[in-house]
Amino acid sequence: MAEQFYGEPTLAERFRDGDSSALSEMYGKYSAPMFVIALKLLGRRDLASDAVQRAFVQAWQAADRFDVSRELQPWLYAITRRAAIDVFRRERRAADTLPLEPEQLDRVVSVEDVTMEETWRIWQVRRALDELPADERDVLRLAYHEGMSQSEVAQHLGIALGTVKSRTARAQRHLAEKLAHLREDVPL
Amino acid sequence: MRDEQSQDSVASGDRELESLLRLPEMWAAVPTDLKERCLAVNRAPGSDLENVVPFGRPRSLRHRAARSRRRLVVLVAAAAAIVVGATGLVTTLTQPDAQTFALSGTELATGAKARAELRDTPSGVEITLRTSGLDGAAPGTYYEAWVKGAKGLVPIGTFHLRGESDRVVLWSGVDMAAYPAMTVTVQPEGGGAASSGRVVLSGAVPPGKR
């Protein structure tokens, strides 16, 4: 994490002031959770990309009105969710005139069923995962995403089973620390 | 075969967290082109974007002018980049050598839409645009179509739609694979050759069909 010096403008302040490097930094920090919740809501990577891009445009458009005393993440989260819903509605309108395949339509009709609380949790977990050291994130990904056992993870990575176990435990502990606030923290 | 005992040891005991970690979306990789689309400002040439009217954004105070110009360039460049992933991108092969895709109206023409049909010919790419909901260009203005890719913006024709037909034939001398995004702008007569940036329709050839 970049060190913040006294008197140096924060990311939120630079963003508010129209510093394009702040936009780049925001992309680096938040594009993944933005994309993940858009994908959760829309079910298609192309639509999720649209939503994230819309969110960035809308955020930048509103940047000079951003209250820097507020947290940037819940604000960006709300914009992203709104942008995804806009994309969803656009697709639903387009479905009246465009030859969408049934399975494409099925993927974009459930956006309003995903609660704000759920998407916020997803955002937070993805942010926390992105902040983990790569080796810790990898063992969690292989276990939870790829469905591997500890032994399979060890074989896959070419490391000892004991190392996988200790790394996994460390990753889970770090993740739990980063997400300790999760149960009470629902924005908006 | 799953090593159940080892698998159990992966569990953190937090079932809610574990269910989130098992969501396929949780681990999704961000598309590699998304950064360029979102941060188009950093590479925007800007020269033909300075006169663009932003999407309903009020004019800034004088002391904010420089900052607003920078932001405007960001917005316009990003809006142009939206074209790349723009709306309703459904391609159907209507003929063996033709493909179609949808263009959607922007904030400047919310009720408008169009379908573009591309056909490779020995002379270039013939693009037939069928619009709906797009009014004829106001007196003193005209529409101009553009294709856009990594190498820049290329004009492919002008039209006004003041007559009975909503069909327009355009020609591109560049390969659509390299210029997959398409926009239509409204241009002021006498305003020069550069894009006004006032995009009324936008769309793109879907990646899988380029």
TrEMBL record, chain A:
Specify the RNA polymerase sigma factor 70 region 4 type domain's residue ranges: 124-175
- Enumerate the GO terms in the molecular function aspect: DNA binding; sigma factor activity
Q: What are the UniProt keywords, alphabetically?
A: Sigma factor, Transcription, Transcription regulation
An individual GO BP term: DNA-templated transcription initiation
- Enumerate the spans annotated as RNA polymerase sigma-70 region domain: 27-93
Pfam families assigned? Sigma70_r2 (PF04542), Sigma70_r4_2 (PF08281)
What's the superkingdom here?
Answer: Bacteria
The entry's family comment says: Belongs to the sigma-70 factor family. ECF subfamily.
Which NCBIfam families does the record match to this protein?
sigma70-ECF (TIGR02937)
Name this protein carries in UniProt: Sigma-70 family RNA polymerase sigma factor
- Recorded source organism is Kribbella sindirgiensis
The opening ranks of the lineage are: Bacteria, Bacillati, Actinomycetota, Actinomycetes, Propionibacteriales
From TrEMBL, chain B:
Q: Which residues form the Anti-sigma K factor RskA C-terminal domain?
A: 76-193
From the record, give the transmembrane residue ranges.
72-93
Provide GO CC annotations from the record: plasma membrane
> Which InterPro entries does this chain map to?
RskA_C
For this UniProt record, the keywords arranged alphabetically read as follows:
Membrane, Transmembrane, Transmembrane helix
Where is the region Disordered? 190-210
Protein name (database record): Anti-sigma factor
